[in-house]
Amino acid sequence: GIQVEQSPPDLILQEGANSTLRCNFSDSVNNLQWFHQNPWGQLINLFYIPSGTKQNGRLSATTVATERYSLLYISSSQTTDSGVYFCAVEDYGGSQGNLIFGKGTKLSVKP
Amino acid sequence: SAVISQKPSRDICQRGTSLTIQCQVDSQVTMMFWYRQQPGQSLTLIATANQGSEATYESGFVIDKFPISRPNLTFSTLTVSNMSPEDSSIYLCSARTGTNYGYTFGSGTRLTVV
């Protein structure tokens, strides 16, 4: 099955710093999403981005489908950005709704 | 995109008992999905729930342990049966209401079995 790898696994930032999170996937996908899981376990959909670039405030994401990777940029980080960031993909041949999640990047933003 | 209400948000249960988790979507959806997230792990799909038919379970998950109901196009329940401490996890439901939005998740149920 499709493999999803995220890096780095852990990241510690000082408030105000910028960061880039990476997601590599092993096969063609028809859906790619970035999620933020807050300390209470809630999973927030950040971007639906099977290809191209999107921006939402301090966050932006780019997916290069032909090269099978996606990047999530966080600028001017805030303590509320802390949590785990997941990349998830849905492959062409898989069951609908079966999102394959990476292991996540755990981000800690220090004041 | 969909808004999904999930309850309870958390519960502590005795081993051997069962817990039913509910998810309500603010619009009609064909399929709803149930995921499990074990402590410190990523999410794994348990089953897909279609209205009017039995749920489809992924490898490693069985109906006797995780019975699912889907009585209409906006609602679903997942029951965790005969619980053991190994069932302690976050359980999340998911749905998709538009091709441009991807999948939306409920707020999750943090289950602890003692």
3D structure, described in words:
The complex is a heterodimer of chains A (111) and B (114). With 111 residues, chain A is an all-beta fold. In chain A, 0% of the residues lie in helices and 59% in strands. With 114 residues, chain B is mainly β. Chain B has strands at 4-7, 10-13, 19-25, 31-37, 43-50, 56-57, 68-72, 75-80, 89-95, 104-105, 109-113. The interface between A and B is medium-sized, with 20 and 25 residues.
In short:
With 111 residues, chain A is an all-beta fold.
What are the main properties of this structure?
heterodimer; A: 111 residues; mainly beta; six-stranded mixed β-sheet; five-stranded antiparallel β-sheet; 11 strands; globular; B: 114 residues; seven-stranded mixed β-sheet; four-stranded antiparallel β-sheet
Rg over C-alpha atoms of chain B, rounded to the nearest angstrom: 13 Å
Helix percentage of chain B = under 10%
Low-confidence stretches of chain B: none
Helix amount of chain A, in percent?
under 10%
Spans where pLDDT lies below 50 across 5 or more residues of chain A: none
- State the largest interface: A-B, 20 and 25 residues
What would you call the shape of chain A? globular
The helix/strand series of chain A, from N terminus to C terminus, equals: EEEEEEEEEEE
Secondary structure class of chain B reads mainly beta
Main β-sheet of chain B: number of strands, strand sense, barrel status? 7 strands, mixed
